[in-house]
Amino acid sequence: MASTFGQLFRITTWGESHGGGVGVVVDGCPPRLKLSEADIQPDLDRRRPGQSKIVSPRKESDTVQILSGTFEGKTLGTPICLWVKNTDARPEAYAEMKAKFRPSHADFTCFAKYGIRNWQGGGRASARETVGRVAAGAIAKKILRERFGVETLAYVKQVQKIIADVNPDQVKFRDVESNIIRCPDRKTAEKMIRLVEKMRKAGDTVGGVVEGIARGVPAGWGEPVFDKLEADLAKAMLSLPASKAFEIGSGFGGILLTGRQHNDPFRARRGKVFTTTNFSGGIQGGISNGQTIFFRVAFKPVATVMHPQDTVDVHFHNTTLKGRGRHDPCVLPRAVPMVEAMTALVLVDHALRQQAQCG
Amino acid sequence: MASTFGQLFRITTWGESHGGGVGVVVDGCPPRLKLSEADIQPDLDRRRPGQSKIVSPRKESDTVQILSGTFEGKTLGTPICLWVKNTDARPEAYAEMKAKFRPSHADFTCFAKYGIRNWQGGGRASARETVGRVAAGAIAKKILRERFGVETLAYVKQVQKIIADVNPDQVKFRDVESNIIRCPDRKTAEKMIRLVEKMRKAGDTVGGVVEGIARGVPAGWGEPVFDKLEADLAKAMLSLPASKAFEIGSGFGGILLTGRQHNDPFRARRGKVFTTTNFSGGIQGGISNGQTIFFRVAFKPVATVMHPQDTVDVHFHNTTLKGRGRHDPCVLPRAVPMVEAMTALVLVDHALRQQAQCG
Amino acid sequence: MASTFGQLFRITTWGESHGGGVGVVVDGCPPRLKLSEADIQPDLDRRRPGQSKIVSPRKESDTVQILSGTFEGKTLGTPICLWVKNTDARPEAYAEMKAKFRPSHADFTCFAKYGIRNWQGGGRASARETVGRVAAGAIAKKILRERFGVETLAYVKQVQKIIADVNPDQVKFRDVESNIIRCPDRKTAEKMIRLVEKMRKAGDTVGGVVEGIARGVPAGWGEPVFDKLEADLAKAMLSLPASKAFEIGSGFGGILLTGRQHNDPFRARRGKVFTTTNFSGGIQGGISNGQTIFFRVAFKPVATVMHPQDTVDVHFHNTTLKGRGRHDPCVLPRAVPMVEAMTALVLVDHALRQQAQCG
Amino acid sequence: MASTFGQLFRITTWGESHGGGVGVVVDGCPPRLKLSEADIQPDLDRRRPGQSKIVSPRKESDTVQILSGTFEGKTLGTPICLWVKNTDARPEAYAEMKAKFRPSHADFTCFAKYGIRNWQGGGRASARETVGRVAAGAIAKKILRERFGVETLAYVKQVQKIIADVNPDQVKFRDVESNIIRCPDRKTAEKMIRLVEKMRKAGDTVGGVVEGIARGVPAGWGEPVFDKLEADLAKAMLSLPASKAFEIGSGFGGILLTGRQHNDPFRARRGKVFTTTNFSGGIQGGISNGQTIFFRVAFKPVATVMHPQDTVDVHFHNTTLKGRGRHDPCVLPRAVPMVEAMTALVLVDHALRQQAQCG
Fold first, then answer.
1. Phi and psi at residue B219, to the nearest 5°
2. pLDDT one digit per residue (tens) for chain D, 359 residues
3. D8 chain-B contacts, CB cut-off 8 A
């Protein structure tokens, strides 16, 4: 099940960065949901390279086609296959990669695993694989919004040392989309953009933190043991390319507090229970408690830099390698729709699981 | 599959903190492995309450019985059921919990989910559920050690602000076990122990960080997309009670570096490839690269404190609740075997998956 | 997942015919279902050896204990572990089996697979493994009955050449239980019993057919492709020890008809759709159509006979083996509760799946 | 997992008979297997309509494209997406189906399940869905042949009352393919063809039996409990459109024998164990014993006939429906490659499972 995610709302992504295209099969989608390519394309546009001056300049339109699972504009309840053709394959750009392993990429480890690799790009480890996730995530977001009243959102919280000030309970989608770095704190966004541009010019790259949130999740989603909501979110986020860390609610910072300080007191008002603080990040014992869910994901600086670096060739001899042509100085703006997609995929899966077991 | 973990080496835990006991069924274990209770009990002893003055004083011997899956001291390849009876059930200690939800516990969320809960303890959300994980993990560790030459280890890296200095490439099991906090840096360990004792006396609790490592993992374990090795580790760790964060290799700290600084250069010596730094934490693109795997897990301060706290009762009226009798000031020493167990379960599963596909 | 059955109502059986006992973990059971041992024991009594003169005389009370998953007489929604201790282990009865493989048993194939086997009985291939299935099936039957108004039933339809006349739409449980062969056609039942007794005295064995039915299943359960309701039933039935064949509705006999004869005409009355014949057996295209579901399962004659038979020993030398002591002349009366259990497990799983996706 | 089959060699089919096409994603395929469209197309040609005068005259070339998972003619170990475009969609041919449910088709049950259906053909219940299975099966067959020395084969054993005489141990592929009904017993094949032609002219249809075999399977494949080899084969076969029954080895016929007659004696020669009869059909206790595996599958007469039949419309009013234009008198010749494909998919999955656990 290497390429499948989810138990009841299951997605299977397929495709390499170079070849016939990339896609996803969504199995378990509820029937009678209005769905067309227009519901999916906007998120793919937020994910694609070339969307602004601070991301990878690869030019692909990433136009999605629904190959199955809908009829007269509605889902049938059967597998939905979504396909995006590859159009910008330039094998010559990768010639050197045939002979050498790029440092901190998956070239060496894929070869160690399979004894073969598609050296024309990153194969399955390429960020291009996330096309399928984002496309499937668009469907998941639609279901959450229309059938469960749940909103999922993500934004850039930090670029290197520059940290934004954002309120997870109030931030809006249009604020996130108001600038090319996708940080809703506009002043900080400008600083972030300047830093990324500086890095791009220096042929170097920079990482940061994306914060993901979900509002309107009712109390009761998630499982008490292995499939805790935060455990599935952690897996979802660590499965994104370049991610290195995940924290929910208070996260690593919470260990500076004592139990008395860290506990979230319950209060009730008009028959509704809430907490007066939210160090838990909306999840307690693996199950949502009705408060806003929020978490942070760290993305390392992109590995491809425009400077010579020590590495080995496929014959295991020492050599050096220098990125050439194109270079993506910061993955964060494009990681935002990926985080949203994975969040929605986790939540819709647990919504269906809750419906199955507890009716 | 709420209570099942793993694809090929699958464990299903069962049991509540109060009831007939807790246990685990391990399915997919290779046949002809020497196995007796003596292989499992030591890790359960490291996990159990009452083992030292700085952990929960609950008194349970946690004696494991193998109910199935072995014959004449060897595994049969069939499901291994392990059972630990409950002996220290004291329902009267929980009487107040029948009426009130404990803050930052799973009482409220479990009730919201199921409409029923075992109020005599934490039910499935209780740390007692981890008995099954640790027991199964002992088997996984044995397979890794004997069949794959892989060593898994964990230790306390940080308690509140006190941080230990430990070298993941060289730390030894006996150093971890040399003190009751399970920190191999002995001087720092003493400070940690003093802090935990102070907290216990104050009726308060404290959190921290456990570092987990795996040495000897060959290049090639893990999957390139959803089931990345770090993604499965993240899920495994965030499924542990009280955990709030996970980072692999450079983690959150890595975002302060640029790509040039953060990349791990490959070098080769005598036909063997290695990296000269290890910001990747032994995993690249979801697949092990042959270097030491290391990661950190944050555990929040234990929620039960000996002070009155605001909460609601089961009728959703405001009230207060104060912990009484027993209290666990710090989960970290007992979290160490849990982290080891989950690490081993993830790795052995991927070892078998690699054997299945790439054979 | 060798020992797990079901997607949402999942059971994992464990245990060998000789060892600490046999059992099952049921994961995914809806919460707040009234459940005690008294709901489960009657079906185990129908399954156990020694219940009449025409079945295996092994003496085991097969008393079930609920180890987890209930509280104050109701299910918690958490894993239910059921355990039946082994009491009649007589290793000496199996001494010869240590050295020789029994013909048409799983001794040789288990050894070929695992390189080890528990020769004290049939290990996992023993009919004793079905204790867990029947126990879990009792829960499934209760859910179907109380929450979905569905009744599941099975009975002996044929013993060797003796065929009973039974109407699947009207047969009642008390008619099935009115005799020791479990055939609701009483006259035929007497003939069957006489044949089985004759076989027992001759040290030989006899097989036959069990018919399984489900009444009250609403239209819409099942999946259109791989997890067709009849496909899951076929797998469930062929997973029972000694079963060799499965047919739904018209089955093998249906191929003697032409399409015109075989099609089931739809009719409607007061807004309700039904078919005027039921060659489909209540399932069309993998999905229930609201008519009675019925199918037949063939069980071969039990392999252990009281006569010397050619076989090989564990050193692969030719030898002979003769059953001794006990001998089960006919598996059919005990297969009836097994067929019922597996039917219920398939149906409740699909009920929950339907609730998840289309609910 | 409604559209996914297999644990380790997993296929997910997608697509409706009318829409963007049909396809399959194969996940878990071993790397470095030579693979091109030329390995797959021949089996699709054996499956497609219009191949002879005795099958459905629908005209589709069913040309397969590999969209992912291969590089320079070899598998990468990553998901293989195979796609066959729809070309013969003629919605007008289905206009009447918009308003009426066809008897003994899945029209009514699909609507009952999902509340929506693609009335332009059979949707997922259409035989067209099997394109993906047959394509994936061609890969499975190649792996079995090249890496495990296993041969899978199927042929028509019976059409209505006409039964062929075939020896499962010796029948050859070229004999199967020597005539359009795919029965290796040529004399009987002629009679079968005449019967089917007669039925076609009469606007009626006829069913029969396909026998499937696997030769060269080593002892030890399969699981002892739920995932018995025969259980997975039964599920695979009953998941094929129009199948109604499955029997392995002696099947229903075996119940006429006593245990003494039915048991397969073991013998050994030069260190190799075999059985002198094969009532078991090559599987004992769910695990292969090294003998030829053989089984039979019953397919009902095709439901679409050229005569008016009673049915109901979508408003649940009584009406009649008559097939028009095209009509497939017998599914058997096209079912042969489907049975082969499903057999190979089951076997390769168990081969990888055996490699994982016991390898």
1. -65, 135
2. 689 999 999 999 999 987 889 999 999 999 999 999 999 999 999 999 989 988 887 777 899 999 999 999 999 999 999 999 988 666 666 778 899 999 999 999 999 999 999 888 778 888 899 999 999 999 999 999 999 999 999 999 999 999 999 999 999 999 999 999 999 999 999 999 999 999 999 999 999 999 999 999 999 999 999 999 999 999 999 999 999 999 999 999 999 999 999 999 999 999 999 999 999 999 999 999 999 999 999 999 999 999 999 999 999 999 999 987 778 999 999 999 999 999 999 999 999 999 999 98
3. 8, 356-357
The β-bridge relationship of strands C10-15 and C22-27 is antiparallel
Give how far Cα A282 sits from Cα of A251, C356, D184, Å: 12, 24, 66
Residues of chain D positioned with their CB less than 8 A from the CB of C13:
225
Residue B323 contacts A, CB cutoff 8 Å: no
Q: Which amino acid is at B140?
A: A
Continuous H helices in B284-331: none
Residues within 8 A of A (CB atoms), B 121-180 only: 122-125, 129, 158, 160-161
Instruction: Kindly report the nearest CA distance between residue C30 and chain A, in angstroms.
Output: 5
Let me know: does C49 contact C59? Beta carbons within 8 Å: yes
3-state helix vs strand vs coil in chain C, percent to 5: 35, 25, 45
Tokens representing C200? 């027992």
Interface of B with A in 228-247 (CB under 8 A): 228, 230-239, 241, 244-247
The reply to whether residue D76 touches residue A3, judged by beta carbons under 8 angstroms, is no
Q: Which two tokens stand for residue D247?
A: 């029997």
Q: Report the distance separating Cα C273 and Cα D105, nearest Å.
A: 14
pLDDT tens-digit series, residues B29-45:
999 999 999 999 999 99
Angle at CA of residue A243, ends A237 and A248, nearest 5°: 50
- In chain B, the number of structural domains is 1
Query: Nearest 5°: phi and psi at A235?
Result: -60, -45
User: Does C79 contact B118 at a Cβ distance shorter than 8 Å?
Assistant: no
- B355/D contact by beta carbon, under 8 A: yes
Both tokens of residue B252? 């959150």
Closest of C78, C57, C59 to residue C67, by C-alpha? C78
- Write out chain A residues lying below 8 Å of D13, CB-based: 79
Chain D, residues 23-52, CB within 8 A of chain B, namely: 28-31
Task: Give the CA dihedral B23, B350, A6, A252, nearest 10 degrees.
Answer: 80
- Eight-class DSSP state of A190: H
Statement: the pTM of the whole predicted model exceeds 0.80: yes
CB A199 within 8 A of CB A171: no
Q: Which CATH number do you get for residue B188?
A: 3.60.150.10
**Nearest-by-Cβ selection for B224 from A110, A226, A244:** A110
CA-CA-CA-CA dihedral for C141, C143, C144, C147, to nearest 10: 160
Residue of A nearest to D10 (CA): A1
Closest CA to D3 of C224, A265, B261: C224
Nearest-Cα distance to chain A for B263, in Å, is 5
What is the residue whose two structure tokens read 């993941």?
Answer: B168
How far are the Cα atoms of A28, A273, A347, B238, C222 from residue A9, in angstroms, in the given order? Answer: 5, 29, 10, 22, 17
Nearest to B136 by CA among B191, B71, B79, B198: B79
ipTM above 0.85, yes or no: yes
Which residues in chain C touch residue D129, judged by CB atoms under 8 angstroms apart? 225
Q: Which domain holds residue D346?
A: 4-358
Angle, helices D107-114/C332-358, rounded to nearest 10 degrees: 60
> To the nearest 10°, the Cα dihedral for B135, B139, B141, B146?
160
